[in-house]
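Sat 14:20. Reprocessing the chain from the morning session after the first attempt stalled halfway. Input below, unchanged.
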Amino acid sequence: MQVPNEDEAAVESEVETPHIKTTEEAIQFITSIEPSELQKCLFSDSLVTVSEGGRDLGEFSLTVDFASRGPQPCLLLRAVSRGTIDGTPCGTKVTAYLSAAMETLEEDLHEYVQLPDNKMERRCHMVQRDDRMMVDRITTAGEEVTRQSDSYCLSAVRGLLSEGSSMLLMRVMALRRAVPETLTLPSLHQGPQLRQTTFRSLGVKHLAVGPETLEVFGVERAVEAPGEVPALWRCFFLADGHLFSREQVGSPVTMRLLQLPPQLEKDGENDKASFGKTPLVWEEDMEMHSMFLDRKEELMADHASYLRQHPELRHLLADFLQFLLIRKPDNVVHFAKEYFLPFGSQCSPETKT
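Finished this time. Tokens:
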């Protein structure tokens, strides 16, 4: 752990797990989730954030894909919210690796509010190691930085939820159009104290998207701790599981769908996306542009790492280009072949293919 400077405070602790009731219905619901259901969860949502008066404030995206974390196959969930409220930029980003049993293997959460002269930022990284959940938090308020590391015994908190696993669990509920009456689990939310998360069905409603009226299914998530007012989120989903709207009760903003996503058509036992003929402009698609930037950063980091490990590559290419520009051959490919041919004879027979 980095040694804190004068503007930083560091705290390390092992959190005593309070008694939070994990209902058997919740455990049964999670253990009943089949791989085929998770397959149906692999799609992207894209919403806009609007004010009470209907003004566009930002955007929200949520994507679930299959991935691998080391040798272990898992689900990768990415959720990004960006916007501007009263002229102040703010946002949240969640990147979570989740097992098929809804366990959080690793998660990064980053929240920020960029005030004119005072940046407010909260970062939380949680990772499962053996039978414990290790959580590191960094909170920045202007020049003051506070660091805290906590540890939780997983055997004492069955079904521990993170922000990412909560989002995926609600997507499964939406596809089933069912929420058990007593679905309660422990969760980590804005601080070291474990909180109780409860889900309940809001039933079926009919809401409008443009000229169309659609049937949607609602799920409410309540996060509470003893002596605190519960934080409530209400989400409504289309029949295929796509997110229709998302709001936090008491917040002046709402995330909602402005246009219908591509409808899913059933082909045998698999669901396949039905795409229209609208030309794809990926630079204007928030989700694809975000994925492009993430992939670009990964490749740049990977290439930079390789170059650091093989400094001779820079010298080799520099010498080749210098020789090429001096000779200026008409056939560049033939020149390159002749130039690099001697290097092949320097390889041992075992390295040749």
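The first helix runs from residue 24 to 31.
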